[in-house]
Design brief:
CATH architecture: 3-Layer(aba) Sandwich
Largest sheet: 8 strands, mixed
Order of helices and strands: EEHHEEEHEHEEH
CATH class: Alpha Beta
Number of strands: 8
Helix content: 25-40%
Oligomer: single chain
Structural class: alpha+beta
Strand content: 25-35%
Length: 231
């Protein structure tokens, strides 16, 4: 027999009424950072750029639903459009790692949006391998988190990943998200196996500290990249 279960206690016993999430996001919304720009995905205009930027086995190793052609990607974008999901296209604002300004470098989404619970997830994120390990991911997440907490009135933002994707687990933890646990036999992979899912979240009470640390990280990472490019 294992250790006896210990009931969890309410960490916010004096909680107050929280407003609903403002949803959907207006179509004209654009999120702009120092390096990255996020526009709402357009299936007709963005499918080709996204397909070619992300057509790499490494990108889809732990992400289900790899498109097999531009037409397939266009259809998948159209099919995914619903009231509980919003997909974004990421572009560079300036030259970065050999890519010219305006290059499509990836896609990410608000998913599992629950306006009544003031909660959403940031997921289905895929980047061109050329921008891995630099400022693109933290700045993209900073833009999405800022908009979720400060404009949409989110009380909770969750992030999750395949338990086999240890790189993603470490990246999410570095954002300042808190590990919540593992959902066992949770989701089917493209190969038919069923994965365990590692869950993280950030809540509104944690956001100010997370925001400050993430802004500092983005600034430091951008400065390091610029310094490296000059050498």
């Amino acid at each position: 027999m294992g250790e006896a279960f210990r009931a969890q206690h309410d960490p916010r016993p004096l909680d107050t009424v929280w407003p609903e999430l403002l949803w959907p996001v207006p179509r004209e919304t654009v999120l702009v950072g120092s390096l990255v720009r996020l526009d709402m995905v357009d299936s007709a205009e963005d499918a080709a750029g996204l397909f070619h930027a992300l057509d790499d086995d490494a990108v889809w190793a732990h992400v289900a639903g790899r498109p097999r052609s531009v037409a397939d990607y266009r259809q998948r974008i159209a099919a995914s459009e619903n009231r509980s999901r919003q997909q974004w296209t990421m572009r560079t604002l300036r030259e970065h790692r050999g890519l010219p300004a305006g290059s499509v470098i990836g896609s990410t989404s608000y998913i599992d949006v629950q306006p009544g619970n003031a909660a959403l997830e940031i997921g289905s994120t895929t980047y061109a391998t050329s921008v891995w390990g630099g400022p693109v991911n933290p700045e993209t997440k900073l833009l999405l988190l800022e908009y979720a907490f400060e404009t949409l009135n989110a009380g909770r933002v969750q992030l999750k990943t395949d338990i086999r994707n240890e790189r993603s687990q470490r990246a999410i933890e570095r954002l300042g998200a808190r590990f919540e646990g593992v959902l066992r036999r949770h989701m089917r992979r493209d190969d038919g196996t069923v994965r365990e899912t590692v869950m993280f979240s950030i809540i509104a009470e944690e956001w100010p500290a997370v925001r400050a640390a993430l802004r500092n990280r983005v600034e430091a990472t951008l400065a390091a990249e610029q310094g490296s490019a000059l050498n």
